[in-house]
Amino acid sequence: MRAVALGGGHGLHATLTALRAVTPDVTAVVTVADDGGSSGRLRRELGLLPPGDLRKALLALAGPDTGPWGEVFGHRFGGTGALAGHAVGNLVLAGLLETVGDPVAVLAEAARLLGVRGRVLPMSPEPVDIEADVTGLGADPAAISRIRGQVAVATTPGRVRRIRLCAADRRSEPPKACAEAVEAVLGADVVLLGPGSWFTSVLPHLLVPDLHDALVRTAARRVVVLNLVPQPGETEGFSPEHHLDVLVEHAPSLRVDAVVADADSVPTPERLRQAAAALGAELRLDRVAAPDAADRHDTAALSASLARAVATAARR
Length: 316
Hints:
By secondary structure, the chain is α/β, with parallel strands linked by helices. The chain is built from 13 helices and 12 strands.
């Protein structure tokens, strides 16, 4: 089974780790809007793709048997010097991006080094910025403010209403899609969106025109995996069904076959079932949260739930 998972950060890491137990043919398509931390520093200083989420996806698909390179890639420098806060893997990817240039070739080389099963691709070959319309930031709670940048959107105390993607160099053209990512979506048997930061890791994939068209056109079964808890800042106070409502607002042409949610994290199952039906999807309520952390997926449980969701979607 050819599986493609789209997202970024810890949410995509959870999906990829679960998918490794379902199929060896996994492609990760990773957002490239990060402008904070080590990734943001490298992006600003060198003009490169932010490497952090790409590194996390590589390590998720490499699994536990990476030898010393896995530990080294994840190691983060301490102290207060120029290297403080940088992950070694981020620096390796930055060096490869500067010397090799082509991000697809860079990620293939890094995957070979780590013994990755599957493939990691960027959402776009160029870094992008997220711009959001937000309410609740001024004296008039209904007034819309415009903010820009992944960190600004993820940490806003206001309520995010809508996002857009902009080229990092502020050109008027829409962001380009990675051609190999488009091909992977069109050739997949199953495509997964989420979990992850909804406005900064999940929805951006739907706002790259060629990637959006591929997600609409693909014959693959499309599965949405919902977050276990609202994200502090960008989705504070969102119900599970509101996550799907926002998805519809940003991609009204997208149809979905299955929605996976944690059974203990859904206070109004019938409302969520109706929101899933608006996307054409069947709702799967499974216990997929880690028993010791309500905000973290249990890898084995999520893997089993995804396998059932895909099998059910295939029969529809």
